[in-house]
């Protein structure tokens, strides 16, 4: 089993519903976010291209945060989801410095926090909150090892990319382009 | 011109707009750790070479500073933690892939050893000292007998301590400026150079002074070579590392790095030490203080610049 998420950048309108849903579902403290929307404009005026991406932790297969964590608090859970155990976290910041996506932050209570693919929902057979609420249905979540899962089918059908694969992190957040 | 403009909705404190997770505590610790490593290395190394009587400042006096530095460094590390009461979790696991983990264990070995080392010389350095406790006097005699073993362990762990302060940063491939394996040897030499400078600062012994001037000159030359090597590596590497090097080659950190670290912290003291060796009269605290200052600045600049350097996507 390997959980992954694919986000259709051609359908995403950047409404930030995913951000709000996550903040409510995961009780993210005010002023912080586990997921966020990036608008990347590229090209030469007047030929410009806009890509909208809903970004979050990439649940890396070779996660630098898990490697650098001195206490084993950052670890791989089922389906390759990278989790932080708050009772083991000393808040040293090594994982934050090691993440090329800057997907982590220090929770006001002192431990480090990040996207968990809403593991509490996934364990109940539900979709992550961000996927569930997306009004354009541009996000797909599922098991990459299951060829019939929505995410596996989309990745087979569509051209896609990952973010900074050259960092060697084996990211599992895919962007359909 | 083809350009990319990125607007992100993320504004997490200490992460955006640029990483600021580590403040003064980490560079301060890296500095005192490196300096303590240098002092303890020379003390144990020359003890093992049988120079106890010729080099009393190196072997007996200078190490008194080491446990003070290490305890101050540990205090800074503790202050840096965001989840302070859980610090003991560091000592529930040895994680070899995490330099911070084996660094924490190294500190656990070398801090008490450096204390024992000083403890074993207190009676000799302060003849009027009286422990007023039979147990402590017994322990003193025992430690004095075991000095050789302590020296062997310390010579090994001081090198690990010195090199680990650099490897700690180079393990983070997300920060292209840190992600160079030369950082370990560079911080080790910088720590040894600061250690040699501290011995020069306190020593009144001619033999020791002349020896450490020579040692410091060689170490500074090696350090300069490492710095040139580091930039050669960056400029021949990927775009993100070229951009990391640009921080020092025209970017925001150019002036502090080349003026404080390279010119005032290496070239000027090296020249002064060379002139002193040739018989010129120069107050020897000037090059020594400059070297220690340069070593401190190196840690602050590398830690800050590294947090600015990043992947862009």
Concise structural overview:
The complex is a heterodimer of chains A (177) and B (313). Chain A is of the alpha+beta class. Helices cover 20% and strands 25% of the residues of chain A.
Distance between the termini of chain A: 25 Å
**Total number of β-strand segments of chain B?**
1
Task: Tell me the β content of chain B.
Answer: under 5%
Q: Give the helix proportion of chain A (percent range).
A: 10-25%
Instruction: Summarize the amount of helix of chain B as a percent range.
Output: 55-70%
Q: How many independent structural domains of chain A? A: 1
Shape of chain B: globular
Sketch the topology of chain A as an H/E string, one letter per element: EHEEHEEHEEHHEHEE
Q: Note the main sheet of chain A.
A: 4 strands, mixed
Structure commentary:
- The complex is a heterodimer of chains A (177) and B (313).
- By secondary structure, chain A is α+β, with helices and mostly antiparallel strands.
- Chain A has helices at residues 17-25, 64-68, 94-98, 119-122, 129-133, 150-157, and strands spanning 3-8, 36-44, 47-55, 74-76, 82-84, 105-106, 112-113, 139-143, 160-161, 173-176.
- Chain A has one domain (3-176): Alpha-Beta Plaits.
- Chain A has 6 helices and 10 strands, in the order E-H-E-E-H-E-E-H-E-E-H-H-E-H-E-E.
- In chain A, the strands form 4 sheets. A 4-stranded mixed β-sheet of chain A has the order 8-1-10-9, covered by helices on one side.
- The model of chain A has no long low-confidence stretch (mean pLDDT 96).
- Chain B has helices at 25-48, 56-61, 65-80, 99-125, 134-145, 147-170, 183-202, 206-235, 239-246, 254-277, 285-308, and one strand at 3-8.
- With 313 residues, chain B is mainly alpha-helical.
- The longest helix of chain B has 30 residues, at 206-235.
- In chain B, 69% of the residues lie in helices and 2% in strands.
- The mean pLDDT of chain B is 94.
- The interface between A and B is large, with 50 and 48 residues.
- Strand 2 (36-44) of chain A pairs antiparallel with strand 1 of chain B.
